[in-house]
Amino acid sequence: MLKIIECPRDAMQGIREFIPTEKKTAYLNQLLRVGFDTLDFGSFVSPKAIPQMRDTAEVLAGLDLSATATKLLAIVANKRGADDAAAFAAISYLGYPFSISETFQQRNTNASIEESLERVMEIQNVCVQTGKRLVLYISMGFGNPYGDPWNVDIVQRWVDRLAALGIGIFQLSDTIGVAGPESIRYLFSNLIPAYPQAEIGAHFHTLPHAWREKIEAAYESGCRRFDGALKGYGGCPMAKDDLTGNMPTEKMLSYFAEKEDLSLDMQALDTALRMSQEVFP
Q1: What is the CA radius of gyration of the chain?
Q2: CA-to-CA distance for 79 and 52, rounded, in angstroms?
């Protein structure tokens, strides 16, 4: 079953000018009407680290969840954030960025990979105790710009260790937009059969012209869980090219519409696309 995860949090978090809480809430409420599987809507992290997300709890209070089956996902960076997020019954998933690049893990969460593994265990424990599920993002999953070692075996070794902790959802993250069709096919075609009980999804960043080859390679290799952000807003500030943004959801959907019945409200999607131009400068 195809799962589309819309990621307005990823699109918003790097914007310096604060987006008013009411504007965020209205946009997210519109996205909830579309029928996505999950909405990555906010994060419980230090406001010093990500000022844009300091109002996540207020935004959540304004969401209308009465007529949607879309589930909510919040990003956390440590146990404290996990405890904060898990206190809200409306949140189904906690997401944690686990980098397999030592340099990026230090820069992103101020922790080594081994320290980060400790955090994963703590967050997974919170999830088990509170009935949430942990979504683990394998950051720098397709390579890194720092010269840290990377190959498919390293990715598989980390998924092995993390799956042994009872984690069942992994998003392979092309953090800097370097994944090509060959590495995408190789990773997904190796990992998906190896973990039949797990969901192994794709969080791609891309240049505007390269989106289709990435989606096609992952889909044809068995991936059925995809992150995106309308219009491709956001992405990783570490990417060297300003044009490297999130995977544009509307383009993904145009590809998937050729393959499957999407069961989405396309009118609500069109309204959300128009609203996105007011939300993002």
Answers
A1: 17
A2: 21
147 token code pair: 């010269």
pLDDT, mean of residues 164-177: 92
Cα-Cα-Cα-Cα dihedral of 170, 174, 176, 179, to 10°? Answer: 160
Q: CA–CA separation, 141 vs 100, rounded Å?
A: 7
3-state secondary structure the chain: CCEEEECHHHHHCCCCCCCCHHHHHHHHHHHHCCCCCEEEEEEECCCCCCHHHCCHHHHHHCCCCCCCCCEEEEEECCHHHHHHHHCCCCEEEEEEEEECCHHHHHHHHCCCHHHHHHHHHHHHHHHHHHCCEEEEEEECECECCCCCCCCHHHHHHHHHHHHCCCCCEEEEEECCCCCCHHHHHHHHHHHHHHCCCCEEEEEEEECHHHHHHHHHHHHHCCCCEEEEEHHHCCCCCCCCCCCCEECEHHHHHHHHCCCCCCCCCHHHHHHHHHHHHHHCC
Report how far residue 161's alpha carbon sits from residue 120's, in angstroms, rounded to the nearest whole number. Answer: 11
Beta-sheet pairing, 71-76 with 91-99: parallel
- So what's the pLDDT on residue 66? 95
Neighbours of 62 (CB within 10 A): 14
Report the alpha-carbon distance of residue 97 to residue 173 in Å, rounded.
Answer: 9
Q: Where are the domains of the chain?
A: 3-279
Homologous superfamily (CATH) for 3-279: Aldolase class I (3.20.20.70)
Q: State whether the Cα torsion 15-18-22-23 is positive or negative.
A: negative
Q: In this predicted model, what pLDDT tens digit does every residue of 233-276 receive, in sequence order?
A: 987 655 554 556 899 999 999 999 999 999 999 999 999 999 99
- Please tell me the distance from the alpha carbon of residue 56 to that of residue 12, in angstroms, as a whole number: 12
Say if CB 217 and CB 256 are below 8 A apart. no
